[in-house]
């Protein structure tokens, strides 16, 4: 399975969030070519500001693995993680993060600048399906402003 395939799965999760009136962000955690955790934003549904896609996908992956660290796993997420999610990803020791689009307003880089908040061994990749991800988020907020 390719990065493209797994990012498509994250985008599918984002669509689930959108259908529920949530900000359309989705995430999947993959290890050895298998999805071990899925998540999409559930902030409104759970009335919980920590119910971000990344947090839900990480929790599912920890439960699946029966472990608190994921050094061999990859997180695919449709938008740059916020500082809260970056902290959780740091503590998870996740091996790789692939995010589709930057989040200039709420992404971790807004706070950390060029300094990575992730574990020193974590590899970061960006841009895969970025335009599609951003267009979903922009359309969601445009519709809310009407």
TrEMBL record:
Class of the enzyme per the UniProt entry, highest EC level: hydrolase
Cofactor(s) recorded in Swiss-Prot or TrEMBL: Zn(2+)
Keyword Chloroplast: no
UniProt-annotated binding residues for Zn(2+): 52, 82, 85
Database matches in PROSITE patterns: CYT_DCMP_DEAMINASES_1 (PS00903), CYT_DCMP_DEAMINASES_2 (PS51747)
Function: Catalyzes the deamination of adenosine to inosine at the wobble position 34 of tRNA(Arg2).
Protein name: tRNA-specific adenosine deaminase
Species this chain originates from: Chitinophaga alhagiae
């Amino acid at each position: 399975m390719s990065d493209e395939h797994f990012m498509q799965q994250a985008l599918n999760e984002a669509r689930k969030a959108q259908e529920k009136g949530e900000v359309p962000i989705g995430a999947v955690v993959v290890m050895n070519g298998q999805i071990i955790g899925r998540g999409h934003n559930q902030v409104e549904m759970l009335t919980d500001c920590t119910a971000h896609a990344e947090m839900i996908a990480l929790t599912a992956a920890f439960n699946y693995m029966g472990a608190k660290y994921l050094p061999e796993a990859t997180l695919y997420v449709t938008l740059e993680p916020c500082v809260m999610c970056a902290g959780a990803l740091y503590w998870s020791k996740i091996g790789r993060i692939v995010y589709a689009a930057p989040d200039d307003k709420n992404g971790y880089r807004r706070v950390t600048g060029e300094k990575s908040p992730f574990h020193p061994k974590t590899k970061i990749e960006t841009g895969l399906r970025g335009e599609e991800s951003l267009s979903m988020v922009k359309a969601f907020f445009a519709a809310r402003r009407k």
